[in-house]
Amino acid sequence: SEEMLVRSEKLSLIGQMAAGVGHEIRNPLTALKGFTQLLRSRNQDALFYYDIMMNELDRISLIVDEFMSLAKPHLSEFKETTIEKIVKSVISLLDTQAIMVGVDIELELEEDLPTVFGDENQLKQVILNVVKNGIEAMPDGGLVHISAKRMDNDRLLIAIQDNGVGIPEELLSKVGEPFLTTKDKGTGLGLMVCNRIVDTHHGDLQLFSVKGEGTRVEITLPAMKISG
Ligand code: ADP
Ligand code: MG
Fold it and tell me: How would you label 93-111 residue by residue, b for 16+ Cβ within 10 Å and e otherwise?
């Protein structure tokens, strides 16, 4: 539709800008970090301020990295892959972080799932961002349940559910807008990156949430057609 076209043009423009600006910011940032570290080691009485400076510089790095991942599509490599491979690799990345905050990650994969056609790294990024949000929504522990099944219309459904803090109704439609975050150390770019990647894979991402109860993220992707 017209609206989707405009949206995807906007996203690709953002992507190109992110790539250019990101490169320009990374180099001076590396120098700043290096010299801050050096000064920190020479000024023992000002450690407190240097720690704040390093923290803030790290935050800028995080934002730049996350923003630059918007700009990657031209490096993308689409091939046949499986949801099982993608999800399992994300779980192994997040296992330690989850255990530390008392979060269990449960996986329920339907048997004989069809394959998908996509970029493994980008799809991992999507699942990673969503599962991370789930973990971060449960500071006192809980459960992230990941399931994948075939839908009847040649699509796969991946659902990621947590029983965390949830999203207030008035915020739900805004979530995914750039820089919208409710976290002290958040960037508000995670879901925006997810939306962009899911778009380029002809998929769909939807959030369902009840404040105080939890959040469910549903991602659908086209199942790969077996040519015969
Ligand atoms: P960030 O995680 O850096 O804040 P995201 O784009 O990943 O940025 O998420 C944006 C916001 O959406 C979060 O700050 C949070 O308020 C809300 N959110 C996303 N996922 C969840 C979730 N599973 N549970 C509760 N809130 C969520
Ligand atoms: Mg996030």
Answer: ebeeebeeeebebeeebee
